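Memo subject: From amino acid sequence to discrete backbone structure tokens
Keywords: amino acid chain, backbone geometry, structure tokens, three-dimensional fold.
Body of memo: The sequence and its backbone structure tokens, given next.
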Amino acid sequence: MKLHRRDFMKAIAGVVPLAGPASIQAAPSTPPIPIIDTHIHLFDPRRPQGVPWPPKTDKILYRPALPDRYQRVTQGLGIVGAIEIECSPWLQDNQWVLNVAARNKIIVGTVGDLEPGTPAFRKQFEHFHRNPLFRGIRYGNLWGRNLAAQLSRPAFVSDLKFLADAGMELDTANPDPVLIATVVRLTDQVPSLLVVIDHFPQLQFPVEKAARKTLESNLRALGKRPQVYIKVSELVHDSPLPRQFGFDSSRMSDRLNFYRSILDVLWDTFGEDRLMYGSDWPNSDHSAPFREEFKVVSEYFANKGRTAQEKFFWRNSIAAYHWVKRDPSQNLTSGAA
């Protein structure tokens, strides 16, 4: 059974799309498209203090996730740089990541963990902001925090304006309908702040009609706000949806077609200027090997044309993160900023 976009949107709430072919090999007459991975995590459970995440019980993730391993996993795919996203609420781990990044030129930026609205925020921010690799902070459905509740606090909103004035961005975490509605409010209150919504394919759409319409309305609103970027990270995941819509999850061709339907909705809502590639490595290992997930997005964008591929795989990441070029391979031309 083929899942048509119209039926998909009716069934799960009409959101955002992407779809397409197989690799980002350019035509023989053009150079290959370089890639910036905008979402990886770094941690090392061997540290004396351990790590707050992942837990020891996680047999897949509980081992060092460091740049040398990432480069082995991605060898030959054309990835020239990566942005590390915090995976620890410990203040000192912001510095630990920056120290690791300093020794590894594949890391072109980091997104740290700080808490706006607290008395120490601005001092802590100024300290880490001295490092040009520090590109923003992450705040959302993570570490027991509540972005919706915080937006009613003037001190929190003031600190986000401070973040925006410093040219930094805000990554959200783990979207749900409440978070999407909150980002609408946030961009109303702080319109100068760049916001990146991560793991968008993980968003679960309500079955209840009124809730679904509200989510659709909020997505349309965000689709009109150029300061909001969408990270196509954690795309392939364990989900009952493929089976629910008649796809055989065990068959790769069915899985690819299902995820292409989701990507099409993203494309229609946000367009080629707002979508970015992110792997969510190594957390993505829970769902699929790196190359399998990469194949889905590269196949999808192979049919979108060279310009759209360049925007998705590196240009849009420059606009969102203003990351630091650290290696000749990252001197991306063709109009790169």
Summary: The first strand starts at residue 35 and ends at 40. The first helix runs from residue 5 to 12. Residues 5-328 form a domain with the TIM Barrel fold (CATH 3.20.20.140).
